[in-house]
Specification:
single chain, about 350 residues, mainly alpha, hpI Integrase, Chain A, 2 domains, 3-stranded antiparallel sheet, 15 helices, 5 strands
Length: about 350
């Protein structure tokens, strides 16, 4: 293998800096999101190496021109069978890296500007089906109050539905984020991008949480302990999403016998969607719902809830009224691949 040139080493350093520093400190602390960025970069470098025959001695700015990126998107779709949604997610991750690259060296800024003009793949809209109120009631009645696990699961499901929080937001919640003794009890939710929002809790939710905390955390809960924790790791190890998925399928099967509207393949996001829909049915303004859901853009909420044209106009009118008021020797890698040259550890 030829010795890498100066530009190859420079770009490899920027890739490492992006994944190992910038993403974690500036973009997200979610390991799932970090994995998404890493996967996109690995796929792009693999495409360059295997399809374009680019190696550590030939990696340069031209490898990130829009024409190459467009070929990569076709390769993702036709050779890897990626859906349009997956292609768009990969493209967004690559764009974020190119934006970072341009901010670190203006000589590369044009690459980001080119990539920003690449159109997203057309996707077929997928509507998330929520649950009816009767289905929600059947689901919340499914856990047994006679068992310790049942009481825990009941408290979790009630909190999940009543707050319409994202699953990871609840799994990452610590005791210090619950304020149940205040005049108006509330929970502090840390959402995407570490954005914080406050959600007030209804009396039924508060009652279940107090009983749960007393039973699972004792009289003086550790503020840094996870509210819902794994029995295997203790209170400083949170429950996993696969564990919650298994739990939801268990109770969905029980609830389905009572109400056929409960889907057997129930997933957590359906409860979030259901609560948002019920808020809308109860007359809550879309702007309020958008805040409670932690959406950065109002349009996201409108699409999320499949809002009609008339409802969109009404919400926008209300919004208008309110507005008025250092690089390591990366050529010394074990297999000589472009991915290893750029310092990316493969996830197996």
């Amino acid at each position: 293998m030829k010795k890498p040139n100066k530009e190859s080493i420079l770009i490899a350093g920027y890739i490492s800096g992006f994944l190992d520093g910038y993403v974690l400190s500036q973009k997200t602390d979610s390991m799932n999101t970090l994995k998404s960025y890493r996967d996109a970069i690995v796929l792009y470098l693999s495409f360059l190496e295997n399809e374009k025959k680019i190696h550590s001695d030939s990696l340069n700015a031209d490898c990130f021109r829009h024409t190459v990126i467009e070929e990569w998107l076709v390769w993702l779709r036709e050779s890897r069978g990626c859906s349009p949604e997956s292609c768009n997610n990969r493209l967004a991750s690559l764009r974020t890296f190119l934006k970072y690259l341009g901010s670190r060296d203006v000589a590369y800024l044009h690459l980001y500007l080119e990539a920003a003009q690449i159109p997203r793949r057309k996707c077929q809209k997928k509507k998330v089906e929520g649950l009816t109120r009767e289905a929600v009631k059947a689901l919340l009645d499914a856990p047994s109050p006679l068992s310790r696990t049942g009481r825990r699961d009941m408290a979790f499901l009630i909190l999940l539905y009543s707050t319409a929080a994202r699953l990871d937001e609840l799994l990452s919640m610590k005791n210090s984020q619950l304020h149940l003794s205040d005049e108006k009890p509330y929970a502090v939710i840390i959402g995407k991008g570490n954005k914080i929002r406050t959600l007030y809790l209804l009396p039924k939710t508060v009652a279940h949480l107090k009983r749960y905390l007393a039973e699972f955390h004792g009289e003086t809960p550790d503020p840094e302990a996870y509210v819902f924790y794994s029995r295997n790791t203790g209170c400083h190890g949170k429950l996993t999403q696969p564990a919650i998925s298994k739990m939801l399928r268990k109770y969905a099967k029980i609830a389905h016998e009572v109400c056929s509207d409960v889907p057997l393949g129930l997933h957590a996001h359906q409860l979030r969607h259901s609560k948002a829909s019920h808020w809308l049915e109860d007359g809550m303004n879309i702007i309020q719902i958008s805040f409670l859901l932690g959406h950065e853009q109002l349009q996201t909420t409108m699409v999320y809830l499949d809002i009609t044209v008339e409802e969109k106009a009404k919400a926008l009118a209300t919004l208008e009224d309110e507005n008025d008021r250092k690089v390591s020797a990366k050529w010394k890698n074990p297999d000589g691949s472009l991915v290893d040259f750029c310092g990316i550890k493969r996830k197996r």
